[in-house]
Design goal:
The structure is a single chain. The chain is an alpha/beta fold. It has a single domain, classed as NAD(P)-binding Rossmann-like Domain (Rossmann fold), CATH 3.40.50.720. Strands 5-4-3-6-11-12-13 form a 7-stranded parallel beta sheet, with helices on both faces. Strands 1-2 form a two-stranded antiparallel ribbon. A two-stranded antiparallel sheet has the order 7-8.
């Protein structure tokens, strides 16, 4: 069949398997030519490995100098009678093939990272087939729902403000327009639920479990990703429900850091730049800021995507020759430093002051925004023949 992009609102309902493979291959090419990670980890577990920052981390750690064997856990869907499946499914396959070509171990676990069964399977695999331990655990899950670890009841996160509601514009990728959207103020319960889903509790449970199983190597590090942003978006993110979850994540890093001292290890949160991922396009009223930010950072030669961010993170901040992780006064690793430069923020502010639904495509980088979104789903990549027939039967057989 010929696979066409199908977008509904902010969601891609189709993906192109060959294009997804090409997007992964392009990221691998980038890190191969970038400054290399020295003294990196050799055995890595990535939770949330199929897209966005988690996929980029895995690519960076395998192909960007460290030559790490990796285990990737992700929640994705393969081809079926219902359709072609999700982009992350094909990203995982492509990663594995490329890693094996380089003589690296690349094991994929597709399923729910919140489930005790998944933890058990991963720990058993580490013990029996992965050399017995890991020296880095990357926690990069992004989800709106998590089963309560005690009751199994589903808990849902909400993207809302805390305090006053607000109104802003959100990109509609299906209709290529800016639409007004309202962020309601969250209730106490909604704040607590969002912390439960996107905070540090599950990260801590993973590390406690792996530690109890004795599969964390001496000197093992763990890392999770956060966003803070500037005061332009504080009401939407940093001071909203998501920010509360991230504050919890940061506090969890400190707790885990203390626990990991027992194996000479460390835990950190890396604060990253705002980027287009499957998860981030859902944040209401956030898109005008990204449109302006991309425009400014590209004009200034400062723009990075997930792969550039992750390679810089591991080369410049995590795996230093002196063994020290580069952190700020709050023990946070900052690769959002270029986004937060005063000159960048001033220019972003100036654009946002003038941005309207009529001019956002010229004032902001809508073309870049849409292109990034399409590429996440395997569309719009160079040297991919989109007129070519894709045989789902063959894909289904794996
Ligand atoms: P993403 O949507 O691209 O990736 C999320 C990953 O989590 C995917 O691999 C998905 O399969 C996996 N996942 C979700 N639910 C799962 C489950 N139940 N079991 C197993 N795997 C599951 O998201 P993105 O944007 O890469 O987010 C990763 C982290 O980076 C999040 O903590 C996010 O807050 C953070 N971050 C994102 C920024 C952005 O602009 N996108 C900026 C700064 C931080």
């Amino acid at each position: 069949m010929i696979i066409q992009p199908i977008i509904k609102g902010q969601v891609a309902k189709s993906c192109h398997p060959i294009g997804c493979g090409k997007a992964v291959a392009d990221q691998i090419d980038y890190v191969r030519q970038a400054r290399q990670i020295e003294a990196g980890p050799k055995k890595v577990l990535v939770l949330g490995a199929s897209s966005g920052f988690g996929l980029a981390s895995r690519i960076s750690l395998a192909f960007g100098g460290a030559n790490a064997d990796t285990i990737g856990v992700a929640f994705e869907r393969g081809p079926s009678d219902r359709g072609v499946g999700t982009a992350g499914w094909y990203n995982l396959i492509q990663f594995k093939q490329e890693a094996e070509k380089q003589g690296l171990v690349a094991k994929n676990f597709v399923g729910d990272a919140f489930s005790p069964d998944m933890r058990r399977s991963v720990a058993d695999y580490i013990k029996t087939e992965f050399g017995g331990s890991v020296d880095l655990v990357v926690y990069s899950l992004a989800t709106g729902v998590r089963p309560d670890p005690k009751t199994g009841e589903l808990i849902r996160s909400s993207i809302k403000t805390v305090g006053e509601p607000m109104t802003g514009y959100t990109v509609n990728l299906e209709k290529d327009c800016l639409e007004e959207s309202v962020l309601e103020a969250a209730s106490e319960q909604e704040i607590a639920d969002t912390v439960k889903v996107m905070g540090g509790e599950d990260w801590e449970e993973w590390i406690d479990f792996l530690s109890g199983e004795g599969v964390l190597a001496n000197g093992c590090q763990t890392l999770a990703y956060s966003y803070i942003g500037s005061d332009i978006t504080y009401q939407i993110y940093h001071e909203g429900t998501l920010g509360h979850a991230k504050t919890h994540l940061q506090a969890t890093a400190d707790k885990l850091d203390a626990k990991l001292k027992a194996v000479g290890g460390q835990a950190h949160v890396a604060v990253c730049k705002a980027l287009i991922t499957k998860a981030s396009v859902f944040i209401p009223a956030f898109s005008p800021y990204i449109l302006a930010l991309f425009k400014v950072m590209k004009d200034m030669g400062l723009h990075e995507g997930c792969i550039e961010q992750m390679q810089r993170l591991y080369v410049d901040c995590i795996y230093q020759a002196d063994g020290e992780v580069r952190v700020d006064e709050h023990r946070l690793v900052r690769v959002d430093d270029w986004e937060l430069r005063e000159d960048v923020q001033q220019k972003v502010r100036a654009i946002l002051d003038k941005m309207t639904p009529d001019n956002f495509k010229t004032l902001g980088d809508y073309e870049g925004y849409k292109t990034d979104f399409m590429k996440l789903n395997g569309f719009g990549l160079d040297h991919v023949d989109y007129a070519q027939d894709v045989d789902l039967e063959i894909l289904r057989k794996g």
